[in-house]
Design goal:
Number of domains of chain A: 1
Oligomer: homohexamer
Number of strands of chain A: 5
CATH topology of chain A: Alpha-Beta Plaits
CATH class of chain A: Alpha Beta
Number of helices of chain A: 4
Distance between the termini of chain A: 23 Å
Shape of chain A: elongated
Helix content of chain A: 25-40%
Order of helices and strands of chain A: EHHHEEHEE
CATH architecture of chain A: 2-Layer Sandwich
Strand content of chain A: 25-35%
Largest interface: A-B, 63 and 63 residues
Structural class of chain A: alpha+beta
CATH superfamily of chain A: Molybdopterin cofactor biosynthesis C (MoaC) domain
Chain lengths: 157, 157, 157, 157, 157, 157
Amino acid sequence: MNLTHLDENNKPKMVDVSTKDDTLREATASGVIRVSKEAFKAVEENSTKKGPVLQTAVIASIQGAKQTSSLIPMCHPLLLTSIKVDIEELPKIYGYRLYVTVKLRGKTGVEMEALTGVSTGLLTIYDMLKAIDKSMVIENIQLEKKSGGKSGDFRRK
Amino acid sequence: MNLTHLDENNKPKMVDVSTKDDTLREATASGVIRVSKEAFKAVEENSTKKGPVLQTAVIASIQGAKQTSSLIPMCHPLLLTSIKVDIEELPKIYGYRLYVTVKLRGKTGVEMEALTGVSTGLLTIYDMLKAIDKSMVIENIQLEKKSGGKSGDFRRK
Amino acid sequence: MNLTHLDENNKPKMVDVSTKDDTLREATASGVIRVSKEAFKAVEENSTKKGPVLQTAVIASIQGAKQTSSLIPMCHPLLLTSIKVDIEELPKIYGYRLYVTVKLRGKTGVEMEALTGVSTGLLTIYDMLKAIDKSMVIENIQLEKKSGGKSGDFRRK
Amino acid sequence: MNLTHLDENNKPKMVDVSTKDDTLREATASGVIRVSKEAFKAVEENSTKKGPVLQTAVIASIQGAKQTSSLIPMCHPLLLTSIKVDIEELPKIYGYRLYVTVKLRGKTGVEMEALTGVSTGLLTIYDMLKAIDKSMVIENIQLEKKSGGKSGDFRRK
Amino acid sequence: MNLTHLDENNKPKMVDVSTKDDTLREATASGVIRVSKEAFKAVEENSTKKGPVLQTAVIASIQGAKQTSSLIPMCHPLLLTSIKVDIEELPKIYGYRLYVTVKLRGKTGVEMEALTGVSTGLLTIYDMLKAIDKSMVIENIQLEKKSGGKSGDFRRK
Amino acid sequence: MNLTHLDENNKPKMVDVSTKDDTLREATASGVIRVSKEAFKAVEENSTKKGPVLQTAVIASIQGAKQTSSLIPMCHPLLLTSIKVDIEELPKIYGYRLYVTVKLRGKTGVEMEALTGVSTGLLTIYDMLKAIDKSMVIENIQLEKKSGGKSGDFRRK
């Protein structure tokens, strides 16, 4: 099993994608934040309040996805061509599931960008609700699907 | 229940901490990444390999924590005075638990910085193992404890 | 008349505030964007649409204000303790006036942060409406008031 | 009228340009800062002083244009291939007009980059003169012309 | 002799590379830090200690190279496709030589990215050893070789 | 000899300065770039040309110093209160020596900020002259003096 990000002396490196083709690549990641009933109600009870909390998360996700190569040391800078965020309300468990889909026409995949977008959006919801609930948990940050590139497509079962 | 980050017109705002005292504040957050057996073995089997993968995550956590106020829209810029990362290997479930502890002498707490550090470190492990396993899951990103400031201490049960 | 940002050889410098006192400082800036009737109607006609356009501007203003010392070469890094954005709709001229108020307890004023916040928010509205109207004009970016610090208070007449 | 930056649920999104062609695109924006007679004279009276104030603005414009996708939430990261700044002195009104021209061979236009460059440069002039005059006004930030891309050319009348 | 980064009025500009071809470009830079015997021994004597000091430098080099266009005002944003760092221990002079090799398929060379990576890595070693030795010197930061692009290849003699 | 930036498990950490006093701290660093006679003449022969090349370096130094905690992984974010750059022309060896002096009232020293400022400024000169000379060498980046803080003052002999 190959640790692609280590060189022959086990030092981290940015993987060489210089000669890879520019192809259309797409990735969707998701993640969940579970909050207290009180925090969920504070967001939901007033439709004007749901707006700003979840919209701030959407915007933070998009801006976070664009910062991926600054945050994750071995990630390549990439010209993301599309970022879309969806939020599913989970009233039964008091939580939110955030989806981020990223596209690119380029030399390497965008799963880290989708995952970083999810992570940033969930942290933003945490931040905006933390005065009500400090025991919230972020969970199930994961790749949902991925297409394009030589390594083949992926779809979570 | 008060959404502290919304103003009287339900617009997001950065909470006013201008008149709060500078006190010593500390927060510890944690989170887990579950990886495949193969990925876990690739990291573990050779002690020189564990070094660079986990060290890169440590460094990314520290740098990520410092970027919190750029990433999370309503977070205040803060003069973090200490960031420490610990990684617990979880051989039974094939995973890693990352702890980030942040300290500050200032006007507001550092839980978001600890959580952002955890999140960035786990994403970095994901990035370095994703050629082996695309189904890894990041979970249980949560505040462990928090002290300092007027809102009182928190310790996860 | 003294150009405080130039040294004895007319080179730019960051002004030395090392020995200034930490005092409470506050500044409010404003600015206007004039848009076409069509663009204004597209935002207004549906209350759910006004939300995301103007909320995105609010969030961009807050994040922009925090980036001031990276953007404006001679600005000091500052620990902003409050950022608040207001948007006034100007239906008679088809436009929006954005106000940003920034606070700090520190050694130098925050007028550049308020102005940078205004500027970033107005550019964000421009960006979100530019598919409808390319002739929009941003105008009257100016300091409204300022308090704290040795140089005295300012209030625009 | 279509708000291109909102998705079907009125959430902000980064517009999908994945399948657009790479074409040569160019945009020029301009803006004005009006300063007091005293501030204008302080800059002008000594040719060595005009240098550093206006040169700092030029450099800030170029660096600001490169930060557009970090500052304006829905902007795409872009590989700008040329940034040129011109400053016109306006002795009759005591002010400066700044022009920024940006070029790109890519999938989307560069008007936001030109406008952000103008805005950053004008704010920099403000910063360097604010010890003399706090009532300066930034005005008429606008697109002058734009070429390339499917939406057609624009030239301000 | 042409100062390519100045325009017809001697103002700095970002050189126009809009019509240059995308070709494979590569550059290697190097630099040395000389440290005290004590600092060198502190790093070397324990193989587990050499790991984190030099690995942190490797990671900082890679992340620094990616920040080149933010740091060096006239540099173009570039889609680096490979960054590799090597560190040569210099036990005779008590020092380290750091090599950074950067690749790109694009319109302009990557020598500044290689040099910025070297510089950031050496500063990181300095930072981690400065409690032991404040008289360390960084020297011989230079381009080793460069290929690709119209200006021809370079190889240091 | 203590590697202060490593924890008990030899992992990098940001040193804990939470309980240190805020004192006035100052550091000056310097460094040299040697260029070809041709490059030196291109800058010198026309006084208007020296302006933009060296001024761009000054501004890049100041902005680079402010980015230190983003670039150097274990550096603390700091509220720099003064940054001043001086450039000494070295006509005998065809080169420039750059000095950066940084001040702070805070909990830890600013030598890394001064060194990072020097490094960024020298790289900027390199960038602006590299079309003329690719064999330039940056050398002798070093701390000149340092005061404030518990570890005592330093002055290079």
